[in-house]
Structure formats: structure tokens, C-alpha cells
Amino acid sequence: MDYKNIIAKFADVPGGMIEAFHAIQDEFSYLPEEAIIEAAKVFGVPAADAYGVATFYSYFSVKSRGKNIIRICESAPCHIAGADEVVAALERELGITMGNSTADGRFALEFAQCVGQCQATPVITVNSKPYFDVTPAKVVEIIAEYK
Amino acid sequence: MVNVTIDGIKVSVPNGSTILQAAKEVGIKVPTLCYHPDQAVKANCRVCVCEVEGNRLLQAACSQPVFEGMVVKTKTPKVIEARKTILELILSHHPQDCLNCIRNGNCELQDLSAEYIIRDNPFELKVRGLEKDLSTPAIFRDPDKCVLCRRCIDACTVIQSVSALGVEKRGCESMVVPTMGGNLIDSPCVMCGQCVHACPVGAIGEIEDIDKLMAAIADPDTIVVTQIAPAVRLALGEEIGMATGDLPMEVFVAGLRHLGFDYVLHTNFTADLTILEEGNELLQRLTTGGTLPMFTSCSPGWINFCETYYPDLLDNLSTCKSPQQMFGSLVKTYWADKMNIEPQKVVSVSIMPCTAKKFEAARPEMNSSGYQDVDIVLTTREIGKLFRMSGLDFSRLEPSPFDSWMGAYTGAAVIFGATGGVMEAALRTVYEVVTKKELTDVNFTFARGFEGIKEAEIDLDGTKVKVAIAHTLSNARKLMDQVRAGESPYHFIEIMACPGGCIGGGGQPITKANVKRIERIGAIYDEDASLPLRKSHDNPEVKVLYDEFLHEPLGHKSHELLHTHYHAKNKKCL
Ligand code: SF4
Ligand code: SF4
Ligand code: SF4
Ligand code: FES
Ligand code: FES
């Protein structure tokens, strides 16, 4: 769906801008600049403020990124459980470093804070779906699911 | 009224006063950083903390209201310790760059560090290493120096309704950034410089052109000619240790000659000329069904704003260039010719109360003389710096008159510097042109004062003209929305971008409070009243200019040199 239609759907919802941002991000996997500017117009705030909202929440991204967002928890428990090795495996498999996206636009790699699943560390999420007790070997399988 | 005790001194203050206000009442200064006297309370820096009896936690004096029987201590060891720690934390990620800083000697953070005897900061120095924004010819940003007080955002959003600045991200990652996190030049910034006044530190400032001027003066092959805007003189004194308005005009001129300027002329000359062109343009629009209301066009921050936010109303703008640019195109044509000077040798300098003038001078269309019309624009602050460097004792300088042919002026030009001044000056001339009668009283006092929007209906011998005056862009916006909606009752609207008009311009000595601006306005009208000629059409050198060169207002030559056109800016993020 076009971002204008998405924003229009939330135009009359109180606090609709954040809802609209979520919906746009689900569609595009990030918040395109034009979408933020359009949201500012629709919700009657300066673009500077809409941009402030878009950058305030770390969940939103204002930089274009791959469709499937793989996040790896970098909080202490996951770290101790070997998150480093998982990071290395992800980077190797996708041929990119953390914080970047693959050239084909399929995958993005990001760090996340504790996702509240510390019983099964290390944890990664793909598009918010969690995977537990991840090992370098499992990484290959998980990525294959989305190829 | 509420009775409180501040450091053992009893005082009664109005309900709703803050600790800060109550302390001021008894003559005790509580330090502040994010607090700004003309803005909403932000309470984000905590430098102002005080002890309140019965409270375990320290209270922010700028935001904490007083209550009956409140006992406040403003400088206990605990308070001083807390303030020191807060300052040390701020300084721990602040560049230690005072010696190279535009605000060296005039910085609230530097002053606080001195007052609180900061020596060996226990916190490790970690500067974020953010990039400077040098994208505009007028305003720079140096985000590493930002203390996140948000005063600039208030100035840009509340006073100017431009909203070019906002906060990005949060916590220790947060930063004040132009719209969409980009550069100022891509934001709706109009370069008014009001954020520079608001900023307590050197995180936003004007792009300095002092070196360019020094190079021109040092070059034996150039002839350096300057113009001085009407609002500069009375505020310049503040930069060199005098009271507002106390620097005499001709002593200022003498100072400029000492600095090495070859000729000293006056923007007031072209302010008078503007009145003749703009007054006649108004009459022409009134009689021939032209676009009304007509807007004044001398404030380049306002022009940027109109081009950005009201591109549908550009036809309402007077086509007159600002006095700075009229001067620029004449000095390399008419004046150079009259003086027998080769125009390519002329370096045309202007001394302005304004940061947006730097941008205006650099506009590509401002070259109707065949050269760039204005080569170098210096602010009042920059010329103040040069004067301080010069070591001149202004009390001992021999006064010196302006040079000829573009140096004469009337009181009507002087008042251009205050909100309402252009309107009053225009009415002095338009009245006499239309009615062919002499004005018995040249003072149109409705046009004076600091009120946001002023209006009146003027009777020109039966023809009624409705006029309005606004200063600050948030007030301009109110009038523009009326025009856009087709509901404006006015024929003529004066807009000045800055609070108080040019006397409060972005290039004036740093002024935190509007009381200073009001004082400067007073000095402007004193100067007007002291002058023998007070109507633009009485300016003798302007008469010579029309007789010998322009021939008539709105004539062929005027159109070529003194008028311009405007362009929608098409900024994508508003
Ligand atoms: S902003 Fe103030 S404290 Fe910081 S370097 Fe400049 S003068 Fe020094
Ligand atoms: S110069 Fe004026 S418009 Fe630009 S950021 Fe500063 S206050 Fe806003
Ligand atoms: S740029 Fe200046 S005024 Fe703006 S938040 Fe930073 S320190 Fe405050
Ligand atoms: S630390 Fe990683 S899920 Fe809690
Ligand atoms: S001045 Fe009071 S919190 Fe900043």
C-alpha cells in the first residue's frame, strides 16, 4: 500500500501518527522521508517534530533497510551466552556487518536491547519473531527460511 | 502575595512566582542555563537547584513556584556541590574550545564555569565528534557545543513559527537538528538568527566574514565602500562598552575610517529611496487594481519565509529590493560613475543588524550592476569585534561626516530600524504625494511600540487606506493566513522578521531579553526626532539621484536596478 493511504487511515485516530508509523514500517520496513513529511502535514505538526517522533523510538528506522529485519540482543545475558559468535555467523552468512542491509534489499542486521527471553539466550528476532538458544549452525537454517 | 524567606531575607512576592523570581526580588542571582526570560520554562539543565526547607531533594528554582512560608537556601554546600557536578557533567562532553570560539567572552557556560570555579573535572572528557553544519552563508551550527537547553527551538518555533529545528533521538544520543536531521540549508530555516540570540553557548552562530573584509582593506587595488543600516549604530555601543544609543553617528564613521574603509556611506540613503519607490508602487497598485494588500520587502528573513511558506502570495510582495540591495546596485553604477571610480575596483561592504542579509547579498539575481552588488556583509557583532581589536578610544575620536552622494538621510530612514518604521516613513511620503499638502505632524504614533500586530486606517484626503504592521514571523503568519483566506481588510502590510524589527535582528549584540530591544526602539525615535529632515522625499541626495540618473520612481532605470522578483523555495519539509 502507498504510504499516503496508510497515513490517511490513521488521520482521525488520537495519537495516530505513531500508529501510522508502525503501519508504514510494517510495509516498507523503515520510515521513508516522504512518509514522515506527509504524516507531519496530515497530523498538523512541523516536519521537525514528526522527525523527532520517528527518531525517538529506536524501533523506528529512518534509514532504508532490508525487508527482513534480524535483530540480535546485545544485553548482558545474551552476550555471556555467546551472542558474539552468533553475530559473526550472521555477518558471514549475509556478507554484511551489523547495522547494514544486504544489497538485494532482503535482510537487515541490527542490535536490540533485551527482548525479555533471557531464559533461552542468545536470542535473535526476525521481523519480531523470536528464535531461542541460537547457535552459529542454527543461523544458517533461520536465514534459509526467509530466502 | 506569598511570604517567603530566601537566604534569611524575608520577601513577599506575587502568587505563582518561582524561586528564581523571588530570589531576584531580594537581589540574589541564582545561576541558570536553560532558562530564558522571554520563553516558557524548560527546567532541563538543573543548574539552578536550591534547597527548600522540608524537602529532601533539591528544587529547580526556575520552575518551582513558591508557597506561603517557604524557606529557600540558594547557596548551601550541598547546593554548590550539586551545581558543580552538573557543570562538570556538561563540560565532560563539551569541546574545550573557548579560545577559538565565537562566544569566547560572551558565553553562559563559560561564565558558569568561571563562577563555579571548575578546575579539575573528575569526569573523563568525551566529545561526540558531530559534524559542523556550514551549509548556509549566514548561520552555522556546531552541535558538539550544544547543551541541549532547547532555547533555539523555542525561538524558531514559538517566536518565528518556522520550526526548522527539533530534537532527534533521545537520552545521551539526542541532539538538536534541522528538519529531517539534515543541514540547515535544506530545512525551512529563514536565516533570521533568532536562534543565535537564544543560544547560551557557541552551538549556533553567524558565519563570520571578517577575514574577507580585512583582505579587501589590505588590497591596495580595491576601493572599500561601506553602507551602514539604520539599526546598527544604536546597538553597536553595547559591543564597545557604551550605553544603548550613546555612540554618536559621526564617531562611528570616524571609527570606520580608522579601520581602513575608503568611503563611508549610509543605507539610510537607500531607505529613503525605498520609500519613494515603494510608496509609488503602493499608489500604483491602489489606482490600477494591482495585487493588494502589498507587503513590504526590506526584511530578507521575511522574504525567505514568504518564499517558503506562502509562495502563493509572492505577487503581494513589493518588487522593491531591500535598501541594502538598492545600495549595492547603485554604488557600482551611479555612485562609481559620479566619483569617477572604476566599478570593478569597488568592494561593496554592508554593516547590518541581520544575518539573513548575508544570504540576501549572495542571491544570484542580486547582480544588476553587472557585478555582485554587495560583496561582504558584516553584522553589528562583527564590526564590534573589529572595533575592540582596533584599540580605538571612541571618547577621543574626532567626529567625521558621511561621504557624499549616497550618505545623506532623513529621520524617515532612521526609523526603518524599528517595527512600524517603514510604515510610518511611507505614510509621511504617501500622504504628501497624494494630498499635495504638507503634513502638520509627521508622527504616526500608532505605528510605534512593541505590540505584535498594529493596525490603522489612514485618511488620505478622502481615500481611506487600511494598514497593518507585524514583527516576528509568528505574527506575520497570522496576517498571511488572513490574506490567503481572502479575508484581509488591509491595503498595505509591513512585516519585519525579527522581534522589534531590525533593532532585534539576528546580527545585533546578543540580547536575551526583549527589554533591551524596547530600549533600542526608544533610541531610534530619539534620533528621528533630532534630525532636521524627517520625510524621505526631502532627502537632497535622493533628489539629485532622480534628477541626474533615475529620472522618476518606477521608471526604466529603477526597474533595472532597484526592483526584483521572488521565487517559491519548494522546500520539501515544512
Ligand atoms: S560554547 Fe562557551 S564554553 Fe563552549 S567552547 Fe564556546 S565559549 Fe567555551
Ligand atoms: S535562523 Fe531563524 S529560521 Fe533559521 S533556525 Fe534560527 S531561528 Fe530558525
Ligand atoms: S543549539 Fe544552543 S540554544 Fe539550541 S539547544 Fe543547543 S545550546 Fe541550546
Ligand atoms: S538479554 Fe537477551 S533476551 Fe534478555
Ligand atoms: S535554569 Fe533551571 S533547570 Fe535550567
Automatic annotation (TrEMBL), chain A:
Belongs to the complex I 24 kDa subunit family. SUPFAM superfamilies: Thioredoxin-like (SSF52833). GO terms for molecular function: 2 iron, 2 sulfur cluster binding; metal ion binding; oxidoreductase activity. [2Fe-2S] cluster binds at residues 73, 78, 114, 118. Transmembrane segments: none annotated. Keywords: 2Fe-2S, Iron, Iron-sulfur, Metal-binding. Binds 1 [2Fe-2S] cluster. Its cofactor is [2Fe-2S] cluster. CDD domains: TRX_Fd_NuoE (cd03064). It comes from Syntrophomonas zehnderi OL-4. This is NADH-quinone oxidoreductase subunit E-like. InterPro entries: NADP_DH_HndA-like (IPR028431), NuoE-like (IPR002023), NuoE_dom (IPR042128), NuoE_N (IPR041921), Thioredoxin-like_sf (IPR036249).
From TrEMBL, chain B:
InterPro entries: 2Fe-2S_ferredoxin-like_sf, 2Fe-2S_ferredoxin-type, 4Fe4S_Fe-S-bd, 4Fe4S_Fe_S_CS, Cytosolic_Fe-S_CAF, Fe_hydrogenase, Fe_hydrogenase_lsu_C, Fe_hydrogenase_ssu. GO terms for molecular function: 2 iron, 2 sulfur cluster binding; 4 iron, 4 sulfur cluster binding; ferredoxin hydrogenase activity; iron ion binding; NADH dehydrogenase (ubiquinone) activity. SUPFAM superfamilies: 2Fe-2S ferredoxin-like (SSF54292), 4Fe-4S ferredoxins (SSF54862), Fe-only hydrogenase (SSF53920). It comes from the Bacteria. Its cofactor is [4Fe-4S] cluster. One of its GO terms (cellular component) is membrane. PROSITE patterns: 2FE2S_FER_2, 4FE4S_FER_1, 4FE4S_FER_2, 4FE4S_HC3, COMPLEX1_75K_1. One of its GO terms (biological process) is ATP synthesis coupled electron transport. Residues 137-167, 181-210 form the 4Fe-4S ferredoxin-type domain. The keyword Iron applies. Keywords: 2Fe-2S, 4Fe-4S, Iron, Iron-sulfur, Metal-binding, Oxidoreductase, Repeat. Residues 78-117 form the 4Fe-4S His(Cys)3-ligated-type domain. Residues 1-78 form the 2Fe-2S ferredoxin-type domain. Pfam families: Fe_hyd_lg_C, Fe_hyd_SSU, Fer2_4, Fer4, NADH-G_4Fe-4S_3. SMART domains: Fe_hyd_SSU, NADH-G_4Fe-4S_3. This is Iron hydrogenase. It comes from Syntrophomonas zehnderi OL-4.
